[in-house]
Amino acid sequence: MQWDKKYALGIPVVDTQHRQLFRLSNELDAKLQAGIRPEEIDALLTHIGEYAARHFAMEEKYMAESDYPGLAEQQETHQAFAKCFVEVYEEFKKKGLNPEIVNTLRRELTDWVREHVTGLDQRFGTYYRDRQASAKKHASP
């Protein structure tokens, strides 16, 4: 799935991070399809895990600052993703890259990123844009 501007939330730093998550997700998917050496997958998974953690923190900061009522739900989904990611990574470290790990990576990780950004995050984007518009309207003389 490719990034589309309709997925933008209107927060430049978050939108940039979402585009990067799409790119990383697509890169992971392509490498899994083409065959990838274990050391390459290790490096890519490490990068994705670190990037996702930074992104979640940034996104949650914007949600908290804008009093987003869905923050707790977002935090739960972010935590669930992080837990799943760690479990898959640990499984990979123990057993290596096998068909089960490949399927789990594709299903649980790449699909999650796409579905989260195009689903749950869009609700925050709508809330954030509406809040920004309301603030501008009330600030006008």
List the helices and strands and how they pair.
Layout lengths: L11 H23 L3 H28 L5 H25 L3 H20 L1 H20 L2
Helix pairs in contact: 1-2, 1-4, 2-3, 3-4
Give a verbal description of the structure.
With 141 residues, the protein is mostly helical. The protein has one domain: Four Helix Bundle (Hemerythrin (Met), subunit A) (Up-down Bundle), CATH 1.20.120. 82% of the residues lie in helices and 0% in strands. The radius of gyration is 17 Å and the shape is elongated. The model has no long low-confidence stretch (mean pLDDT 88).
Summarize the structure.
The chain contains 5 helices and no strands. With 141 residues, it is mainly α. The chain has a single domain (11-132), classed as Four Helix Bundle (Hemerythrin (Met), subunit A), CATH 1.20.120.50.
Characteristics of this structure?
mainly alpha; Four Helix Bundle (Hemerythrin (Met), subunit A); 5 helices
> What is the number of domains?
1
Sheet having the most strands: none
Q: Which runs of at least 5 residues are low in confidence (pLDDT < 50)?
A: none
CATH topology-level fold name: Four Helix Bundle (Hemerythrin (Met), subunit A)
Distance between the amino and carboxyl termini: 44 Å
CATH homologous superfamily annotation: Hemerythrin-like
Question: Strand fraction band?
Answer: under 5%
Kindly name the structural category.
mainly alpha
CA radius of gyration is 17 Å
Q: Would you identify the CATH architecture?
A: Up-down Bundle
- What is the global morphology? elongated
Query: Average pLDDT value?
Result: 88
Task: Give the C-level CATH assignment.
Answer: Mainly Alpha
Q: Encode the helix/strand succession as letters.
A: HHHHH
Helical fraction: over 70%
In total, the number of strands is 0
